[in-house]
Amino acid sequence: MKINAIDIKPGNVLEHAGRLWIVLKRELIQPGKGGAFAQVEMRDLKTGTKTNERFRTQETVERVRLDEKEMQFLYFEGDMATFMDNETYEQVTVPREMIGESADFLRDGMICTVQLHEGTPLSVELPQTVVMELVEADPVVKGQTASSSYKPGKLENGRRIMVPPHLEAGTRIVVNTSDGTYVERAKD
User: Fold this and answer.
1) Using an 8 Å Cβ cutoff, are 2 and 60 in contact?
2) Which of 20, 148, 181, 183 has the smallest count of CB within 10 Å of its CB?
3) Could you tell me if 165 and 159 are in contact, meaning their C-beta atoms sit under 8 angstroms apart?
4) Whole-angstrom distance, CA of residue 163 vs CA of residue 175
5) Please, is 21 exposed, middle or buried when counting C-beta atoms within 10 Å of its C-beta (0-12, 13-18, 19+)?
6) Are 52 and 40 contacting, i.e. CB atoms less than 8 angstroms apart?
7) Nearest residue to 105 via CA among 183, 188, 174, 48
8) pTM of the predicted model as reported, rounded to 2 decimal places
9) Cβ proximity of 88 and 41 under 8 Å
């Protein structure tokens, strides 16, 4: 599908120079002299290399349509994660680096959104938050006010995060999967 460069948005997948690119940032620039253009930062979906391209605002680019499927995470085998389509029971494997740091939060049976292009997985999106158990929490330092600071803690997956001082080991908490931050205490 052809779109004007002015309509490019972050998250769009473009076909450019014979490769697929995901748009990371787009900035419209109107110089004092000459026509306006879109400065687009993109990442190659296969190799992961980044590039910056300039497109005139009226120039057309090829936007690729992606299929989004809800898939269930099954297991890790080495650095490869396996997901299953719950409708067709078809399985796909993706490298851990495609998922990024949020791969630490994958759990058996978790439903994720997998974006595919002609049957090839391009990206995996986890649910916004996940409930995990805090297995280690440093003791509270006397005189430390509750509102001012957080203390280090360790989750059941081994990931270290900062948590409020009132939490103790064994507490179940909600964690943001995109950046690994504490959200709130889990409602049991």
Assistant:
1) yes
2) 148
3) no
4) 10
5) buried
6) yes
7) 174
8) 0.69
9) no
